[in-house]
TrEMBL record, chain A:
Gene3D superfamilies: 1.50.10.20. The keyword Ion transport does not apply. The keyword Zinc applies. GO terms for cellular component: CAAX-protein geranylgeranyltransferase complex. This is Terpenoid cyclases/Protein prenyltransferase. Belongs to the protein prenyltransferase subunit beta family. Residues 7-336 form the Prenyltransferase alpha-alpha toroid domain. It holds the Pfam family Prenyltrans. Keywords: Metal-binding, Prenyltransferase, Repeat, Transferase, Zinc. One of its GO terms (molecular function) is metal ion binding. The lineage of its organism: Eukaryota, Fungi, Dikarya, Basidiomycota, Agaricomycotina.
UniProtKB/TrEMBL annotation, chain B:
Its EC number is 2.5.1.58, 2.5.1.59. Its cofactor is Mg(2+). Belongs to the protein prenyltransferase subunit alpha family. Keywords: Magnesium, Prenyltransferase, Repeat, Transferase. InterPro entries: Prenyl_trans_a. PROSITE patterns: PFTA. It comes from Obba rivulosa. PANTHER family: PROTEIN FARNESYLTRANSFERASE ALPHA SUBUNIT/RAB GERANYLGERANYL TRANSFERASE ALPHA SUBUNIT, PROTEIN FARNESYLTRANSFERASE_GERANYLGERANYLTRANSFERASE TYPE-1 SUBUNIT ALPHA. This is Protein farnesyltransferase/geranylgeranyltransferase type-1 subunit alpha. One of its GO terms (cellular component) is protein farnesyltransferase complex.
Amino acid sequence: MSSFPRLARTGHTSHCKICLSGLPFSQVEVDASRIAVIFYCLGAMDLLGTLSAKTSETDRQKWRDWFWEQQTSGKYGTGFKPSTYMTPQGGNDEYSDYDIPHLVMTYTALLSLAILRDDFSKLDRPGILRFMRACQREDGSFSALPDGGEADLRSVYCAFALSNMLDDWSGVDVDRAVSYIQRCSSYEGGYGQTPYHEALGGTTYCAVAALYLAPSTAHSSPETRMTPAERARTIRWLTQNQTSSGGFRGRTGKLADACYCFWCGATLTILGVGNLVDSTALAMFMAQCQYKFGGIAKAPSERPDPYHTYLSLASLALHPSREGDSSWDLSPLNVFWNITEETARWIKDHIPGYKA
Amino acid sequence: MSAAFDDSSDEQQLYAADPEWADVVPLQQYEGVDPIAPIFYSEEYKDATDYFRGIVKTGEMSPKVLKLTEHIIRMNPAHYSAWQYRYKTLIALNSPLKAELELMDNFAIQFLKTYQVWHHRRLLLGALRSVDVAVRELAFVTRTLRTDTKNYHTWSYRQWILAHFNDEARLWPGELPWVEELLEEDVRNNSAWHHRFFVVWQSGVRRDEVDREEVLRRELAFTKEKISLAPNNQSAWNYLRGVLDHTHTPYASLTSFVQPYTVGAPSDPEDSIVDLENPRPSAGAELPSLPALEFLADIYEAEGGDGISKAVRIWKSLADEHDTIRKKYWEYRIKDALHGAQ
């Protein structure tokens, strides 16, 4: 037991803090998804419990202001854009067709604002519902942008999580979306990114979480959206993905990657069998993915990034190993929203109109 | 990834100094409040995107916009606004879309993992509405998959082409032989197995495959053969299960095939009559095969009665000996079966 590795809490916090202060040009690809990167940094610090000690209230106030500047309204309704990368000096009164809100960014923005303990008084609730309606397509899927762009299970999940946070499902045609999700189910037991594609860990989480998040309708309920045989097949495929390295892979036959420890493990948790994860093997894998200067990488001896750092910590929060010392203590995670329970509670208490 | 514009990128002059761009008013990026996690842009990227924001403001769609968006995309292939504007400009100018597709060949290989590269191709194909082009694209995908045999975007794109054009004479016939080639090279390529399922079971019935019983026999024979080469290959076993589930064929129909894979060492070949329908594990195979043990336990469990205790015995051996990382899963199966049997 004494030889069990430690979680490098200080290193991971400083990795996130450095990213929040600025990203090198080699990261320019996140220009169009910057809010997500910020969410991973804030989320990691929230899980570690280091946010209030390691950042100042002045910083957090500035960040809240910055987030609200990304909330933007126009002909498709209201949502958050990834950053100001397409916003010209002087700003826009209404967004242009090339500076519109993004569904996935809207989901991560609400989570980030909750981590920063915003009071949500500036939230345009009806506008966001209108925006979601504009994103749903004929086949039941959602596109990330109302006038096109990627339409797949990721956006479906974000629309469902947002509806759940707002406690209002009027922005979503649940039955059509559920039937889309079911069409993404693969013979292996996982779900592909879109119908008929290969089973993949991340989109399997999106599918299963969405099936359980949506309220009952006249046609389906969370209990009936997967048959017992489908559920058994999904559990089988998910557990099969934990490899001898201790980590999970995202597809049959591939190598383990830290992010799939969250996607696969969290899906098992949603299905009520999170205890099937070998949590000690998982922690040993994560320990090897830790980068010597902080942050967690997708695999041993790779470079870390906020995405893998956050998801690794989220996975460790869901599946704590009994072997680990107090360095492994993390805040409990709300598996449906992918945020700490405390922050989820904040959302329920502060998002206007939350009835539960 | 910061990609160079082209080989002469060092001399790439800024748009601000280019007379061709003198008529465009550049618009700097808005940063009202102190930004969080700002990206430290290069001078070249900042200059190009300033001019792009200027273009978007006026709505100009001209050949020079195509050059600008290409430049931005080469620096940042995930810049979806540049992609969107580029596509609209191509359509507005009535540009030759086949030439665009050729340009994209180079992009796709350089930026294989970027979604937008593939999305743009789909838009082009949708606009071109040509089976000839679709045929060309399948050939392109075949080449691309040689460099990265499991790239998710590439595979999705291929499946999209097949379903979108759905051409019985010119697109579908090559798929099965091609999948077989891929599995010949790497029998563990799960994407190829998945594609096989898509082609045989999901995309509608092929003209020469109306006899579904015959298709089932062929698929079982094919899969058994591949399992005999690599008995622990999870991809082949998952395909086998997928076929059986899809056709509602009981797993028990494969008992005599599975059994030789569940024992510790291959039985003496002298002892056994060669059974073409049930190929035995190849020489030197690592036995027992875990997926075979699991499969046999499923057969026993479905049998019920005494079968349950036989299944439990296998699950115990998996939990304690052969597959300890999934110990809790096998124990869960035991609990579940015993509970169900009561």
